Amino acid sequence: MSPAERINELRSLLERHNRLYYVEAQPEISDADYDKLFRELEDLEARHPELDDPNSPTRRVGGTPLAGFEQVRHPAPMLSIDDVFSEEEVADFYQRLRKNLGTGSVPVTIEPKIDGVAASLVYRNGSLDYGATRGDGVTGDDITANLRTIPTLPLTLAQATPALLEVRGEVFMPGEAFARLNEEREEAGLATFANPRNATAGTLKQLDSRAVARRPLAFIAHGLGSFEGVELPDEHAFRSLLVTCGIPCNEPLWIADELDDILAAIHELDKKRHQLPYATDGAVIKVASFPDRVALGATSRAPRWAVAFKYPPEQKPTRLLDVTVQVGRSGILTPVAELEPVGLSGTTVSRATLHNESFIHERDIRIGDTVLVHKSGEIIPEVLKVITGKRPADATPFSMPEHLEGKCPTCAAPITRRENTETKERPVVTWWCENPLCPKQAVAALVHFAQRKALDLEGLGESVAIKLVESGLAISPLDLFFLEVEKLANLLLDPARLQTGEISKPRRLGEKKAHLLIDSIRNAPTTQPLSRWIFAIGIPQIGESASRELSRLHETLPEIASSNLLRIICRIADLEAERKLLSPQNKDNPPADQQEKETRRSRQEELKTEIRESHAGIAEFEISPDIGAVASRNLLSFFESEHGRRFMECFRQLGLNPHSDNFAPRPVEAAASGDVPLAGKTFVITGTLSLARSYYKTLIEQKGGKVTGSISRNTSYLLAGEGGGSKRDKASSLGVTVISEDELQSMLA
After folding, report:
1. Which segment of 24-38, 433-447, 584-598 scores lowest on mean pLDDT?
2. Which CATH superfamily hosts domain 316-433?
3. Which of 87, 408, 442, 585 could hold 433 in an S-S bridge, CB 3.0 to 4.6 Å?
4. Which pTM value belongs to this model?
5. pLDDT reading at 670 higher than 50
6. What residues have CB less than 8 Å from 669, skipping those under 6 apart?
7. How far, in Å, CA of 655 to CA of 524, rounded?
8. Regarding predicted confidence, which is higher, 5 or 291?
9. How far is it, in rounded angstroms, from Cα 565 to Cα 571?
């Protein structure tokens, strides 16, 4: 089989397994087998850049940051939908449909209104051409690179498809994934997102698609834009096409042709919507027939054939009875509101996260207050605000150190205060238990170490971890490597609730499960790559993507522990912080007089030079934003701490030495060979070329040139194929030379 044939086969296999896993929830292979196929494709594509495809499954991990989003014009305007807020307005809408179409009944569809971010996807000949935001309805931002990272969105369509198919839908963050993302941000001491829609909108605005790939986004189609080469008479035919193409579509769906049935569907959806994986705040009613839609037309902003019925937001008052504190895996202390039980969005709510002490103080939340609660994104119980008019005289302000008397609620170790000021968001005050042997932390650390995405240790769940810690058999992850089958087999687990509702007797783990667990522990050093070990350690801010990036930059764990790259990243952040503090324009720290102003300006220039030089020193590594200043500090703090030093010493004693499976050594400078005809030249690439853009990017960089994403006065050449109109126009206005592929080859010759 030729490389091209194997690459095509791997791409088809991976897309199929993506669809089975993310859309149909019926995976056929293990994560390890999927990773093996993925790495084989990565290796083949790296060796054969001429076979690059922008819709390859490998693009789902993101690519080089963009300088800015380009604008694209929608094939047909993306209109808004008018809202209605009462059953009377629904009746008026339906009567207008009957009157304007001159018929007694009009079949309509009723479906959930997804609270996400609207996007348009344009497929040409079965392959994703581009994707864009709604923008002003006529023109939107080209966010193709970000959309390619979404696992539920097919990059190539499963079956024979129209020559042109524009699908419209919503990008959203599933409820459980949104909850996990906020938990991870709390663990890292970062501000949490208010709701899934805000998190989604902020993510899609990222210019670095590698950062987008870390966020749990999904896509669901609900509408049709332009299309060619197929007959689509109605909504049913359109949805059948989506199923054939493997594009997830909005469900559930009701079809009705009487007002009473429409209202009944709206009421039924109201009962079901709280169990949907996404936030929904309404029901969309659309005329089913496409010819009827054309006949009804649209106003300048909305179609006349659709409306969105908006459900009233459910917010209820209840009393805050107490504040308890949970201990996380990394030691962060999270306050939790203990509420008087209240029915909310289909469930009984008695607890809600209070995130951190900053959240409590900003809202002046006190124990005994009557608070207004809702479900953020219809999913996560949250305290909205205090109803101060109902505040009792004995309402007690909350202070973490006073509430806990300065001690961890689990192990009674001292707690410490941290303030995160390294992000663009507001400073966040958090409290931490610094005892790495805290039982709550120990249990969470063992479970994290064993989870599927880490070392995948068979049979080590929370119940086993609790007993390992309680018995003293394992209080840190590396203790697992000292376990013996006999002691592990005799571990007595807590009683479990049976399907009949009865409580079982305490259970012995047993020899079979003990052998399975110990075998998977002993096999981990040879079967799991370095990136999984990094993730398994559980350092705050170091997730799967960051772990893969660290193993790309370092070959072993001791190399990370002594990494100069991480220190340079931290140094750059320190210099930037000092530069901002000393800025003469800093309103929070203005200079005292003109002399100080001049002194600051001089120091600022020194800092700018040092920052530039530091960036230049690590630029060749193209470090992902996954490894920023916060992540780098957390890594260095871990390895320099007493706990981290003990971990590494035990790591060495056990003879553990996992290696990277994606290590990329320092790039060889082209100057070493003297073959640098493009040295000092900056290129931008646009249009349809005979070979992949990545091929030309690699070629230009090998010959000493630089490739950027946008044209400026500093651009030397625009390498242009067919099309690329906007960049050609800008090049012409700035006097940038436009060259063809043949002209580039002549320059190299």
Report:
1. 24-38
2. Nucleic acid-binding proteins (2.40.50.140)
3. 408
4. 0.57
5. no
6. none
7. 12
8. 291
9. 10
